[in-house]
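To fix ideas, we close by showing one paired sequence and structure record:
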Amino acid sequence: MQASNDQTSKTTIDLDRVRAAVGPVLSTHGVVLVDVEWFTDQGAWTLRLTIEHEGAELAGDVAGGVSIDDCADVSRDVSAVLDADETLIPHHFSLEVSSPGLDRRLKSPADFKRFRGKTAKVKLAHPAPDGQKLLRGQLVEADEGKVAVIVDGKRIEAPFDDIVEARLVFELAPQPKKGPRTGKGQRGKAKGPTR
């Protein structure tokens, strides 16, 4: 019976208290909290903080502008704060601090508005009017409880409440093709069989 009670307490922590506790630390480092997750993986509990630099939104930086050193510094200081108040998370856990990444998750209507014009993958709980449950295309609108995506040239709208998961899609910029070499040093390819 004790194990059951213990399991229940581990599954519920007050994320608002955690946010309030780590907020001043993040501010000191010039970063803001994008997301906080509390989850278990193979029996080990993890607190994951996703951060980005203040002003990353205005700079148009999808990945949040944080470096590995930023994450390490924030992790060290947040860990000290969480260790100082054991009532926040009263058992063993791992702390992860990361940037949103190039394939950033979109969770709120504000996220969809912020990244209008970007390519995203949107997974729906129910099929859209054209039958698709996975939309991949350009975000064109996020207003009044719905999201609109251009998929293969067609505008598809889905209620925000129907979105299961959404992420930005990182696309490499096309590289210019190398043209034929010119000048004296050019070597031609052999045409036909060589002997």
